[in-house]
TrEMBL record:
Pfam families: CarbopepD_reg_2, Plug
Keyword Glycosyltransferase: no
Xref: InterPro entries: Beta-barrel_TonB_sf, CarboxyPept-like_regulatory, Plug_dom, Plug_dom_sf, TonB-dep_OMP_SusC/RagA, TonB-dep_OMP_SusC/RagA_CS, TonB-dep_rcpt-like
Membrane topology term: Multi-pass membrane protein
Protein name in the entry: TonB-dependent receptor
Alphabetical list of Gene3D superfamilies matching this protein: Carboxypeptidase-like, regulatory domain (2.60.40.1120), TonB-dependent receptor, beta-barrel domain (2.40.170.20), TonB-dependent receptor, plug domain (2.170.130.10)
Amino acid sequence: MLKRITKNYYKAFSMLLCAMLCLASGFAQETARKGVVKDAVTGSGLAGVTVAIRGSSNSTQTDASGTFSISANTGQVLVFSFVGYEPYELAIGQLTSLEVNMQPSDNVLEELVVVGYGSQRRSDITGSVASVPKERLSKLPVNNVMQAIQGAVSNVNITQSSSIPGDAPSTQVRGLNSINANREPYIVVDGIPLSKTDGSINDINPNDIESVEILKDPSAVAIYGVNGSNGVILITTKRGTSGTPQIRYSGYAGIEEPAHMLDPVSPEGLLERYAEYARITNTSLFNGGPVRNEYEWDNYQNGITTDWFDAVMQTGKVQNHNVSLSGGSENARYYVSVDYLGQKGIIKGFDYKRYSFRANTDFNATKYLSVGTSAFVTAHNRDGGRANLTQAAAMSPYARMYGEDGQLTRWPMYSEQLWENPLLHTTTNPERREFNISLNGYAEMNFGNIWEPLSGLKYRLNAGYSYVPKRSNEYHGLSVYNANGWGRILNAESQTYTVENILTYEKTFGLHRFDFTGLYAARSKYWQQSEAIGEVFPNDILEWGSLGTASTHKVTSEANLYRTISQMARLNYGYDSRYMLTLTARRDGASVFSKNNKYGLFPSAAVAWNIHNESFMADTKNVIDNLKFRISYGVSGNEAIGTYQTLALMDSNPLAMGNLSNAALRYRTLMGNDNLRWEKTAGFNTGIDFGLWGNRLSGTVEFYRTHTQDMLLRQRLPRITGFADVWSNLGKVENTGIDVTLNSKNMVKDDFSWSTTLVFSHNKNKITDIYGDGKDDLGNRWFIGHPVGVIYDYTQVGIWQEEEIAAGLNRGWDEQAEAGAVKLADLSGDGIINDDDRRILGQTAPKWTGGLTNTFTYKDFSLNIFIQTVQGALRNNPQIGGASDELGRRSAPADLGYWTPENKSNEWRSLSNRSNVYGYGFPKSASFTRLKDITLSYNLPSDAAGKIGVSGVTLYASGRNLYTWTNWLGWDPEARDIPRGHTQDNVGDNTNYPMVRNYVFGVNLTF
């Protein structure tokens, strides 16, 4: 018995060993094939090309430089496929280094485009859906994907008002559709919303992004209902493909500097300013001059000057490192990446670090069930005390930085106590931490693989959980001259749950094609915040780590819960690839509204006609490759208000009664409103898509008009009611505009090509009604027939001169005028300057924007040049306006002149405190044209790359914000510039940060 068992085991072991040897022999014949795939016309590498072995599940994709690596046997056939290109097949020989040139296909209309809860062929799209150019995503080193989109997509206005490391730009799609409501577009990542989770676009690592689509017209955004009124941005991240695992490294490093340096007044120029101010105000300087203050006097006597901009600024540094691993089999695919971004800001203390991890997986559990994840974790670190640019701009070059004890002075221009030392808060060590932990997954069932008659029917479950904790800890003690000590701990967090049930059905009957999508979704977000403040500490040793040792304490906390329920149905119908129809209806319910109006319905309809597919167009095939007409109409919504705003709420306040402290309740100043309704935006869009002469010239032209009504405005109430205001459905806003995108292949040679992309957009925004009585709201600067954001001010016509005052020309015009004062137009003609002389001078939003991209390729080199322009915007210039009582003290910009009896300027006012008694804001054009970025890249030939042990190498150098043409006096027409003291406790002063120019060098490697 034992002998028979042993014999059977020996036989089984022999068979297993034989199988293993045969398998090993088979693997031994496989060879790693490395290569590069290029555009046969431009010669540039193609990213995302699928490389598969015919008859096998083994496949891979090319990286950002077009390189790939795959194991294949001699005699097998590699199949190359990519949207917009003709398929290519290559029989494997003995070569291990391959170069493939793919020909662009004329049938680019077959490209699949993400449209929300699915995708469509570009030829079947009926709404306005813009795709961000792939090269902007893959070949531009940016810290935030919005920086890559800026100026590259028509009527998507992205403003980088703050260059503070870690700050995200603001985005508007097709103008302002609301006054009080949120104006940012809705962002969805891999089908799960990022917006309204307290997450930020900065949480998404740009290296992980595969594609970005922007839904702009009401028909396209209506599928997102209450979330779609400001446009929708759909981000799709990279996923794994079956085949040999690929390791990719992308990294860059560079330096940053101010894009424009606002030079301060020279020491000599400031002394002249002091002398003139003393003459005008009839005041004496310190010790008879020429300086104003004690500390200035000491440094002046010793010939000591300080460049305060140099003191608070430094050469910024930026670096980014990303490693990703992707691959898988036919039934299991993965994409994993880790990323580190580090920035050392150009102003001391503005440092930023971001750590991110992403894991995208896809599994075919059975032939009818697939599951997957789209999970990521991001950590942000903005720790450190920061220098203050606003304070530095005010410092006298003779001001004293350090005291006799070697410590930073508190008042560098003592005895003047208006300006603190701009480096003072670099001695503190606050913590600013933020995290985003998002665990998202899906399960999809294909009923057609269970029972063939159900072919085309699918059910998908999307589920997401987002946890966003934040904390901010700070302490101010002796280092900032707070003898008592002040500490604070602020913790906030939000948890968001999303569940979406999606049912889709696709069917084709002859020339008829149907596509139905149904949705039932629910969402819940819980937010809470707690704050503890302590004052008067025994010492500074533990800082905020021991608030309990403080003599006085203050603790506050708050929380809220937000929930939505949504249903949606969409039907796409197509006939013979010529006529397309899309019908959509979405119903949203949100907890922010009362039971009377908790739900809103948002329908839309769109049609499209592929004219080039008509038989009567047959004779134009050599000229017209694509000609499609689209028209749509739809309604989207905006909830616009926070939680509990429709309720009559009460606050608890301590009340002393007898010897006891009791809690007393009182109504808040906001009145409740059970009848509050949704804010709705209805819009019309029509567009033409075209491609001519083999798509040598292609593009899109669109015209749109949107109308927002039932706007949610906070209406003022008479105080006799006991309330200050109430949320009401009032006002209407209209937007009209045009979008243009043109693509041209200007020159196509064997080794050289030149292509151009031009985008242009114009938007006209106006308020058509406010309170229903046809009257303007002067206090809020809202005017019927004009844009939401306007400059309403006087009109400057010059500067009052001495001879004019002496001749009495100011009488019957401006009785308060003195020589050197701003001369304002008496537009009402009543002989006095007052509010009746104010007029609407312009709008704060640009009237039109444009972008021009030129791409040149020569063999393995590629040069990309992008120019952006923003025209027609008007802004009050705080550098010119400043605070009138500080003109004689602060070290104003060197370019800012002033009137004197000698120079008799007719542009600049005098240094007198009365030179601008009417508070004129000095509005100036904020228009500019900017050389936004230049990138030069080189793809190392595959045979050369193979010699160093990698399958692909791309080297590049890139510059951003290289030069700006503008008449704006200041750091930059886009940059935020908050005057001193215009925010509580002057905190906002420390948010001023110049626009940054950077130069980076990078490399992409594929192993």
